[in-house]
Amino acid sequence: MDWTRAVDGYCERLGPEFWSEPVNAVTNAAFVLAAVFMWRRSFGLGRVLCAILGVIGIGSFLFHTFAQPWAGVADVLPILVYVLVYIYAANRDFWRMGRWVSLGGTVLFFPFAALTVPLFGMIPGLGGTASYAPVPLLIAIYAVLLRHRAPATARGLAIGVVILLLSMAARTMDDPLCSLFPMGTHFLWHLLNAVMLGWMIHVWTRHVLAARGAER
Questions:
Q1: In sequence order, what E strands does the chain have?
Q2: How many whole angstroms separate alpha carbon 102 and alpha carbon 12?
Q3: What are the tens digits of pLDDT across the range 173-199?
């Protein structure tokens, strides 16, 4: 595989030059801003998630500037790490599972994704966004199951699902709307994802603080 070949996957990109996607590149600052904003409002695993959120912005910036396969890995790998850490945090703190059970539940994300991504891939027009679709589905499952145990947390997760679905819609429509909107809509994927990921850290933080308060 040629790790330095040019990748042209988004409406805004007009060539292989570094600044061929200026809006897509600059809007990655939203991830860093969300990470900084939530850092001062969180702790423990929440701050780990904040750090990963900042790295997501850096990785995505690299991909939308260099636009090469190695930068694509830098783009998607931090997102996967964020998802896995959040699942672990949710298992441990929402469900009060032990460390090893929480880790085991986290690993189950891989077969869950392997089973569901092909199904989402059958949806016309979804394209590469299908690889992200297991995430809102899993969050929705957690929200439903937590609705009696932790209703405020369940509502927070449901809000996260809505924001993520809007974000995925923006990502999906980038190519179909390209002729009408040359800048594309991928930048909305960045902005909405930054809000959603920061919101999910807030949901976790609020849940843990509420649980600590109830134990006093």
A1: none
A2: 41
A3: 999 999 899 999 999 999 999 999 999
Cβ-based burial of 15 (10 A; exposed 0-12, middle 13-18, buried ≥19) = exposed
pLDDT at 9: 87
Distance, CA of 95 to CA of 48 (rounded, Å): 20
Let me know the angle formed at the C-alpha of 11 by 8 and 16, rounded to the nearest 5 degrees: 35
Type of residue found at 113: A
Q: Give 213's pLDDT tier (boundaries 50, 70, 90).
A: confident
Which two three-digit tokens encode residue 83?
Answer: 């998802």
Residue 55's closest CA among 22, 25, 77?
77
**Over pLDDT 90: what percentage of the chain?**
91
- pTM score over 0.90: yes
Scanning the structure block, which residue is given the tokens 């997501």? 56
> Residues, the chain, total?
216
Q: What is the pLDDT of residue 14?
A: 85
Whole-number Cα distances in Å, 27 to 33, 34, 75, 180, 191: 10, 12, 14, 21, 7
Helix (H, G, I), strand (E, B) or coil at 129: helix
**Interatomic CA distance for residues 172 and 1, integer angstroms:** 26
Q: Using one digit for the tens of pLDDT, what is the confidence trace for 141-184? A: 999 999 999 999 999 999 999 999 999 999 999 999 998 999 99
> Alpha-carbon distance 106 to 38, whole Å?
23
Cα angle value 200/201/202 (rounded, 5°)? 90
